[in-house]
Every structure is written in C-alpha cells, then in structure tokens.
Amino acid sequence: MAINYDFNIDNKVLRVKATGKDDNLDQVIEYGMAIIKAALSDGCMKILCDETELVYALGTFDTFEAARFISEHAPDVAKVAIVCSPENIIDADFWETVAVNRGLYVKVFKNMADAENWLMKE
Q1: Residue 50 β-bridge partners
Q2: N or C: which end of the chain has fewer CB within 10 A?
Q3: Residue-range definition of the domain harbouring residue 81
Q4: Cβ contact 20:55 at 8 Å
C-alpha cells in the first residue's frame, strides 16, 4: 500500500492528510518533496501534517535518510507540525531529532490540538 495524501490551504497553512503505508524510502521522499513543492507554490510557511492514518514501516536507516534528505530540501523558514498515531511516536520522534539536527523547524505530536497550538504560536 502506498502513501496517499491530500492538500488543503487554510489561512496560509498547508494542511496535509496522509493515509496508507510508507512502504519504502522513495515513497517517503516523494511525499516530502510534494509537501515542499505545494508549500512553496502557495506561499505557505506553516505546514500541518495529519499522519494519524499513515502506517510507518521504514526501518531505522531509511527513516534517518528520509529525514536527512527532506531537511536538506525544505526551506529554512517553514514551521512544520506532524501528528502521528501513538504506535508511530518512537519512529516519529527519531525522524524529528534527525530533521531538527539538520535545521528543519519541525515538531511531532500525538494530537491535533497540541500541534495546531504550537504551529500558530509566533
């Protein structure tokens, strides 16, 4: 099963809804680059990713590579909140650490309310 995603822009916030399963590194990179492209083309500097219905299946090395690649290609000024299911939080926290260490302004959450509060704070 592949990653499926939809974009919606609300008040200059790019909202992403992802479902499916991240079967391989190429899919995750394609998904991340689609988000970056959409944010840049619409001038969105805040991104909210709802990944609560996305199954994380990458191994540790591929998770590291995905975070490294995406953080190198994402704009420095974007602020990204990612909401994942509780069973994915360990992998999500690792992804966040790798990405933050490479300059991406991103934080992972277990619920949408906390993610939205963090994202909207200046």
Answers
A1: 17, 83
A2: C
A3: 3-120
A4: yes
Contact 39, 7 (CB under 8 A): no
Residue 109, burial from CB neighbour count under 10 angstroms (0-12, 13-18, 19+): buried
Q: From CA 87, how far away is CA 44, in angstroms rounded?
A: 29
Q: What is the mean pLDDT of residues 53-59?
A: 95
CA distance 10 to 97: 28
Convert the pLDDT of each residue in 85-121 to its tens digit. Answer: 999 999 999 999 999 999 999 999 999 999 999 999 9
Give CA–CA dist 4/45, Å, rounded: 22
Question: Which CATH number covers residue 58?
Answer: 3.30.750.24
Q: How many domains does the chain have?
A: 1
What separation in angstroms does the CA of 62 have from each of 17, 23, 110? 22, 11, 22
Q: How many C-beta atoms lie closer than 10 Å to residue 28's C-beta?
A: 24
